[in-house]
Design brief:
The chain is of the alpha+beta class. The protein folds into 5 domains: 15-121, PAS domain (Beta-Lactamase); 144-257, Beta-Lactamase (2-Layer Sandwich); 281-376, PAS domain (Beta-Lactamase, 2-Layer Sandwich); 381-455, Helix Hairpins (Orthogonal Bundle); 464-631, 2-Layer Sandwich (Heat Shock Protein 90).
Length: 636
């Protein structure tokens, strides 16, 4: 009896102190018989309030017919247990989630049902938050353009895909299940040209040789479209030898297309700039060189690496660098484009260049630098000067020719009449000497008109295939006997120079005039060299002179070591009647006549001279036999 009492007391204590809600009910009527204190706290009802209440009024289920399933299970087995899906009612009309167990008890010949309800509010709330976070994470994973995947490699090298985000279907056109069930399926969609890359990469990852790897390769969509992917994988090695793989796959097709377009555009414009004959540069706001093209490097004489980051003071004389900086500041401060001609040191020589400087702006329109381009116009300006000179000489020649022709007619009449008068005068007539002086003056005037007519191309030529070398030898032989012995006369004749289609007498007159002009430039003596060469002029070389043209020519050079021709008068030396000689020492028609004869023979003459170091006159005449005779010099 004492032992039985002690057990009843123990049972009563467990009932009263239990942390779960305990509810006794009558299985037949489903009425509540008794509840423990925790059940009162969980429901908010007292024992008295719940006595004879139906247990079906205290509970509800999330599952359809959940209470009926509970009842059937209890009636069949006398036991029911559920971890979720049931709620107990609180008197404040709040339903509390519970884990529910129902047990059939036999007490003193009486059958009772015991409901054990455990409050799982905290667990339910935690589960609810977890589900919410999982939903949010799932939404994030589904919204990003990249797809994520994870896999596990066992210690013996077996690969198993654990997760692939649904975005894989958007990127590949295949459902995630395809790759989850067969990891080899991924290799089947890789472009044939990239399969070896992906296979090698996969082998390295599975072997644990890398901790992180990133590759770009192509896949083929079901419709045949090719897409570029970037696949990044991180590898984590566990203590048990397993490998955990985590990957991120991005579609980079558009980016690669943009990069290719940008690369093509950059290559196109770089090729354009690098092949320009003009010098191009870009300076930043501090006027340091930020970019230059090869032509600029060639002009400065430095490689690009030694130019970038420096300024004009590092490459040009101070006075030029100061001017360049002042012009750049105008562009930076005013935003205006400057176009000007100025001096520049190009390839170590001072040249005249044409410069265009314009502001460089960023996307917001702010001026961030100076973009400049310049090119050498020294030769262009020289050609323009030659053209002006040629036009002037043409005009002067026409004028001189017209005057000389009319004047020659007058002289013909004067000389004829003087000759007739002299023939009728007696030998001792006192007027004979006056008439003879008049005749000599008229003859000198006739020689001047002949020279003028030669300059204006109105003389009658007798051209024929002619060797220049014999003419040179004959002329020099005559000069050696007549000019100052302090002048050393030398020749350097090319035996293979060929023939020209020319008037031999006119050629001898050209050479004689040039040699006498050289003699006058060496009053104290010097060296006179006459040289012939057969030369071939390319189109590029022919651009240096207005009258020049490509082809095969004989060049006749007359070189002296005299006092040279000052630059300020060099452009006038072929003008008729222009001379630097003293009164009565020259008519100024010698070089003018040379100019006219050479042009009439379809050639041209060039001059190089330096004060104190002498001059070189170079006559270019076309080689005979390389063109039809119809193209030979015209005969007036």
């Amino acid at each position: 009896m004492k032992t039985s009492l002690s057990f009843a007391e123990l049972a009563q204590t467990l009932f009263e102190e239990s942390a779960d809600a305990l509810i006794f009910f009558d299985p037949e009527t489903e009425q509540v018989q008794d509840i423990n204190p925790f059940a009162q706290r969980l429901t908010g009802y007292t024992r008295r309030e719940l006595r004879h209440a139906l247990v079906t009024d205290l509970f509800r289920s999330d599952k359809p017919n959940g209470l009926q399933q509970l009842r059937r299970a209890y009636q069949k087995t006398g036991m029911f247990h559920s971890q979720e899906g049931f709620w107990i009612r609180h008197r404040e009309r709040v339903w509390v989630p519970v884990n529910l167990s129902v047990t059939r008890l036999h007490l003193e010949g009486r059958v009772l049902g015991l409901i054990t309800a455990r409050d799982v509010s905290e667990m339910h709330e935690a589960r609810k938050q977890l589900e919410q976070r999982e939903a949010e994470l799932r939404q994030i994973l589904n919204s990003v353009s990249d797809f994520l995947w994870s896999a596990e490699v066992s210690a013996d090298g077996v690969l198993k895909i654990r997760y692939i985000s649904p975005v894989v279907q958007k990127l590949t056109g295949r459902p995630p299940e395809l790759f989850l069930s067969n990891h080899e399926a991924w290799h089947s969609i890789v472009h044939d040209e990239d399969k070896s890359l992906v296979a090698e990469r996969c082998a390295r990852v599975r072997a644990g040789e890398v901790s992180r790897v990133e590759d770009e390769y192509r896949i083929v969509l079901p419709d045949g479209q090719v897409r570029w992917l970037r696949d990044s994988v991180s590898v984590e090695r566990l203590k048990d030898g397993r490998l955990l793989l985590h990957g991120v796959v991005s579609d980079i097709t558009e980016r690669r297309q943009m990069v290719e377009q940008l690369r093509y555009s950059e290559a196109k414009y770089r090729a354009l700039i690098e092949n320009l004959e003009q010098c191009v540069f870009l300076k930043d706001r501090e006027l340091r060189f930020a970019a230059v093209n090869p032509k600029f490097c060639e002009a400065v004489g430095k490689p690009e690496s030694e130019i970038l980051g420096r300024n004009d003071y590092d490459f040009y004389p101070p006075h030029l660098a100061e001017k360049y900086r002042a012009d750049d500041m105008v562009v930076l401060t005013t935003g205006k484009t400057l176009e000007l001609e100025e001096e520049n040191v190009t390839e170590g020589r001072t040249r005249l260049v044409r410069v265009v400087k314009r502001p460089m702006r960023d996307e917001q329109g702010n001026i961030v630098g100076v973009l400049g381009i310049f090119w050498d116009i020294t030769h262009q300006r020289a050609l323009e000067e030659q053209l002006r000179h040629a036009q002037k000489m043409e005009a002067v020649g026409q004028l001189a020719g017209g005057v000389a022709h009319d004047f020659n007619n007058l002289l013909t009449a004067i000389l004829g009449n003087v000759s007739l008068v002299l023939a009728r005068l007696a030998p001792d007539d006192p007027n004979r000497e006056l008439l003879q002086i008049t005749e000599k003056a008229a003859l000198r005037a006739a020689e001047l008109t002949r020279q003028l007519l030669s300059f204006s191309r109105r003389t009658r030529l007798r051209p024929q295939p002619t060797e220049l070398n014999p003419i040179v030898e004959e002329t020099l032989s005559l000069l050696r006997r007549t000019i100052d012995k302090r002048i050393d006369i030398q020749s350097d004749l090319d035996p293979q120079s060929g023939q020209v289609y020319a008037d031999a007498g006119q050629m001898q007159q050209v050479l004689m005039n040039l040699c006498l002009n050289a003699r006058d430039a060496m009053p104290e003596g010097g060296k006179l060299l006459v040289r012939t060469r057969r030369v071939v002029l390319s189109p590029e070389e022919a651009r240096r002179h207005v009258s020049a043209r490509p082809g095969v020519f004989i060049r006749l050079d007359v070189v002296d070591t005299g006092h040279g021709i000052p630059p300020e008068i060099r452009s006038r030396i072929f003008e008729p009647f222009f001379t630097t000689k003293g009164q009565g020492r020259g008519t100024g028609l010698g070089l003018a006549m040379v100019y006219g004869i050479i042009e009439e023979h379809h050639g041209w003459i060039e001059v190089e001279s330096e004060v104190g170091r002498g001059s070189t006159f170079s006559v270019y005449l076309p080689v005979h036999g390389l063109q039809p005779v119809s193209e030979a010099p015209r005969v007036a």
